[in-house]
Amino acid sequence: MLNSKYFYYLFLINALINIINYVPRTLINDRFAGALPSIFISMVVGTMLLYGFAKTISHFGGKGLPEIFAERFSKIISLPLLILYSGLWFVAGIITMISFVDITVRFVSPDISPYAVIIGFLLVVSFFAHLSEESILYALETLLFLFTPIILYILIKSLLSPDFSWDAVMQVITYMWTKPKYGTVAAGTFIFSGYFNLAIFNRCFKRLNTRYIWTIPITGLMILLVTFLVPIGYHGTIGVEDHIFSWFSTADSIRMELFIIERLLFLFYTIYLALSLVSAVIHWHVGLELFKGAFGPKEGNSGFKKADWWILGSFSLLTVLIMSQLDQERLALFGQWFLNVRLVGEFALLAVILFVRIRSVKKA
Predict the structure, then answer these.
(1) Is the confidence at residue 303, as pLDDT, over 60?
(2) Is 255 strand, coil or helix?
(3) What's the structural domain count of the chain?
(4) I need a surface site. Which of 38, 84, 95, 363 has the fewest CB within 10 A?
(5) Distance between alpha carbon 86 and the CA centroid of its chain, in Å?
(6) Which domain holds residue 58?
């Protein structure tokens, strides 16, 4: 069994990776229409979901959702639930990879084929998604220790740059009391959705220590505010809407005169490429284990090892197919729909796991 610190790592990787995904785009699109109040609402809602799920599932130490559902529900109930959430988390990984393909083509190598990039990503993600939970968490810990200090340096440098306009930030803050939107709240709460990975990674914990869980809403709020306000400070309240991936455009605006790399973009790209692939590995590992768990608990899954490659191969083909059908506008719409549906799904999952817990207490 592993230390509870890995639970906080699962939150952190999901929070950091969403700096470059559809969360900042959604917030910026609604900067005059409730983005700021949505951020504070997201902190409350996201923390509630995270704390409720983590606290409840910690009572089932060493077990993931497949094992918990196998003990409490019949196949008629557990099979569709596990397949539904498996598909949801596979889609999360798909969106991350397709987004980074677009980023690679736009900012790094416009001449490269996007299909060559996505195939490379799929090979890496499929191989590592097949590994054990412990191996994935150890790799995650190593990457976070390597990259988190650099990310903090980048954020501090961006805020201290003379090109950063605090006037633009203050102008957006004046819209603090506008009515929030569901879509913006759904985007903001995705920062906290790393807790969902406990659906499988709870197998690694005997009992979660939630003593420091109060740090999560503070960290999440800071990340959301920085994600939203820094691009506005660089590109202005109007100009920021012209940038599809606002954080990469922002990174391209920052110079590192005293560093070995003059353009921050390449360092930023390298860090977030590694983090994006690790995030996709975690999402696909959870999706894979939930899918297998729909047809039998973990102890009966030894015969599924060969089927892992068929499952991962099928979703890899689906990823290529989805990418071929999505242009930039459709991809953004697809991402927003995922965020909207995901929030409802997380509330439903929390209700289910609470029901299971209350039922267990009554039987005891």
Answers:
(1) no
(2) strand
(3) 1
(4) 363
(5) 15
(6) 5-363
